[in-house]
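Pipeline run #58 for the internal structure catalog. This entry was flagged by the ingest filter as a single-chain record with no existing model, so it goes straight to prediction. Upstream metadata was stripped on purpose; only the residue string is passed forward. Reviewer on rotation: M.T. Logging verbosity set to normal.
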Amino acid sequence: MSARVFGSMVIFLLWLAVTGASHAFVLSGTIKDGDGKPQEGAEVFAYDSLLTRRPADFISSKTAKDGRFSIKLPERQYWVVARVRGGDRFGPLMPGDKHSGEPVEVEPPREGEARMDFTVADIREAAQSRRKTRDDYVRVSGRILTMKGTAATDAYVYALPHDQQAGIPPFISSWSNENGEYVLFLPPGSYRIGAAMEFPPDSRQLSDVVLSTGKEAHADVRLPHDPRSDAQGHPDEESDE
């Protein structure tokens, strides 16, 4: 190889490096647990579309004790979530794994870094942290049903305030029993409620409910899909690579 050809290749590679770097941005922030403490061992998963039940396009390094993360991404729109996995890095979420909820949209900034913080929680932790703690909470009870009207066991009801569009549901019931019965305590107000067997829940099919102080409420809630469909290819949890 002549010196001229070699020099041209070096210049070309340098040009690729410079142009590639100019079309990327850094997303950084802090991941915390449900108590607001930095979460160690968390990762950020970035997807180039809303189809997040598939391997991620980019995955950050695991956070240290300070909960901080930083990930460099090619310049385009992304949907991102944060997770903590106790076992394998890939595959369905397992009991004890933590998740930040619905994917959050990220646009490349005009200049500087993009900043985003996450809160991750396990469904059991979330349910325990949202127990009835005040006398003015309203007791909501009923049954969780499948699309065919049968009792759904080991499911839960969750509630989103009307002004919350995404993220971990702030109110989650205990698991339903063999009759599909559940109990959920909520402050008075307006909510959108739904039922799920997976976490995070599919929040596309919700019902409106308005709760008043001093009154109990009854609400039967249907799952958005038949649990049997999970065994036939319905992704009941997100899978990552």
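catalog note: The mean pLDDT is 79.
catalog note: The first strand starts at residue 24 and ends at 32.
status: ready for reviewer M.T.
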